[in-house]
Specification:
Blueprint: H1 21-28, E1 32-36, E2 39-42, H2 44-63, E3 67-68, E4 74-76, H3 77-83, H4 85-88, E5 93-96, E6 102-105, H5 110-118, E7 129-138, E8 153-163, H6 166-186, E9 191-197, E10 204-211, E11 217-221, E12 227-229, E13 250-264, H7 266-271, E14 274-276, E15 282-284, E16 286-292, H8 294-304, E17 306-307, E18 310-311, E19 322-326, H9 332-351, E20 356-359, H10 366-376, E21 380-384, H11 386-390, E22 393-398, E23 418-421, H12 422-434
Parallel strand pairs: 3-7, 19-20, 19-21
Antiparallel strand pairs: 1-2, 4-6, 5-6, 7-8, 8-16, 9-10, 10-13, 11-12, 11-13, 13-16, 14-15, 17-18, 21-22, 22-23
Helix pairs in contact: 1-8, 2-6, 2-8
Length: 436
């Protein structure tokens, strides 16, 4: 992709109402555009990141054996009345259609998926069933804030599981916990599994929280892995860990990036979802619900991985693998050689499946190009210039946190760079892309 042809541009001006790092950097870097509070357009760079996160989520859901569906965002009033959430869910968007008929925009999908499954399962032989979707959700938040972290329209993956027995629900619940841990790790997030209230569903639920100073939640945790949300913790910082009895309780701000609930029979009761058991008697179906917000994950990655110059995307979700920069030269012959080398590299990378953003602008200075590259945060930068061509090389520089250790093959993180022979660069980039 040539930057000169890409829709969306970087800007030095931060949005006047950007109240978070992710809102500021994603907007300045040309990843998103705000339509109104809590509602964003994903520009090409941003959509590439969002889709990569969704791909990771899909891969892990499919590994669980879940089947993907796509439910409507618009639903009638009646199912919400059955569950008591037409009047009980304060963030529900309600609207009136033709003939005075009332509808809701999906804030969540229990009211749709439960009667859907009821049409297809009738016997214990039909269970378990696990279905997921990735769908936009709508919530009438009184105060949308923090960029992608709390919006009125946002992307959500919701997985619903249906079981005959509590043992089967519990076993699947534990499998999902493992899948969620892999998803966040693959996205570059170190997420704590935090016990939280089960509300009206059950004794407990679990949240996945990423520690960061910009978080809205407070979690209490220990180095042993024990963690609880403050809403259910009765102790204080410095107490002995109630789990390992050795470590000390700490507290930190955190961002919730996912949650899972054993719904039990809350929604199957509302819709009378039963199947015939092995003994011929009706059995009430048990349910589980498991949510991840891909857009919220995207915002969280930015909150965690950035510095004063811009974003620092993990390889797995970066919009492109590498950022190719050519430095213009007034000498037309030199410029032609620089551009020719860049075209050959760009086309060769794309043919081998390596994603490259080429900053081919002739009207931007070297300083502008480097500043934009830092802001955009693609993890690898290659520079072609008169100086590098004189050595038969390109300049290699990785966009990574300064505290990171040096990478393999002699590169230097956190500001260092090195020269790589042009004939070697394809192989080195190919190997670099493979390394997680």
């Amino acid at each position: 992709m040539r930057y000169s042809k890409m829709f969306g541009r970087t800007t030095k001006e931060a949005p006047h109402d950007a109240d978070s790092v992710n809102a500021r950097l994603l907007t300045q870097a040309g990843f998103i555009n705000q339509l109104m509070a809590g509602v964003y357009t994903y520009l090409p760079l941003g959509l590439r990141v969002l889709n990569k996160i969704k791909t990771i989520v899909r891969e892990e859901m499919n590994t669980l054996g879940a089947q993907e569906i796509l439910m409507p965002a618009l639903s009638p009033k009646e199912p919400w009345q059955k569950t008591g959430r037409w009047d009980g869910l304060d963030v529900l968007f309600k609207l009136e259609g033709a003939g005075g008929k009332e509808y809701a925009l999906g804030a969540t999908h229990e009211e749709v998926v439960t009667p859907l499954v009821q049409q297809y399962i009738h016997s214990y032989k039909d269970l378990p069933v696990t279905l997921y979707q990735i769908q936009d959700k709508f919530r009438n938040e009184p105060r949308a804030k923090s960029g992608l972290l709390r919006g009125r329209e946002f992307s959500m993956k919701d997985l619903y599981s249906f079981h005959l027995t509590e043992d089967d629900l519990t076993a699947y619940y534990e499998r999902v916990k493992g899948a969620y841990a892999r998803i966040f790790s693959r996205c570059g997030l170190d997420a704590l599994v935090v016990e939280a209230s089960g509300g009206t569903f059950s004794k407990y639920s679990h949240e996945y929280q990423v520690i960061t100073d910009s978080g809205e939640d407070i979690v209490y945790h220990c180095k042993c892995g024990w963690a609880v949300n403050r809403e259910i913790f009765e102790g204080k910082v410095g107490d002995v860990c109630p789990s390992c009895k050795k470590g000390m309780v700490e507290s930190h701000k955190a961002i919730e990036v996912g949650n899972i609930f054993p719904l039990k029979t809350k929604y199957s009761d509302a819709f009378g979802l039963d199947v015939t058991g092995e003994d011929g008697k009706l059995v009430r179906v048990l349910m589980g619900c498991y949510g991840i917000g891909p857009s919220r994950v995207m915002g969280s990655v930015v909150e965690v991985h950035h510095d004063e110059r811009g974003m620092i995307w993990p390889k797995s979700v970066a919009p492109f693998h590498m950022h190719l920069i050519t430095l213009s030269n007034k000498d037309s012959e030199v410029k032609a050689r620089v551009d020719e080398t860049a075209v050959e590299l760009h086309d060769s990378f794309e043919r081998t499946g390596i994603e490259v953003l080429w900053d081919d602008r002739d009207d931007a200075s070297a300083g502008e190009k480097f500043a934009d590259a830092d802001l955009i945060g693609i993890p690898l930068r290659l520079v072609v210039s008169q100086k590098t061509l004189a050595e038969g090389c390109v300049e290699w520089k990785e966009r990574s946190e300064p505290a990171d250790p040096p990478p393999a093959r002699g590169g230097v993180r956190g500001g260092g760079s090195r020269l790589v022979k042009i004939e070697d660069v394809m192989g080195e980039v190919g190997e670099w892309v493979k390394v997680e």
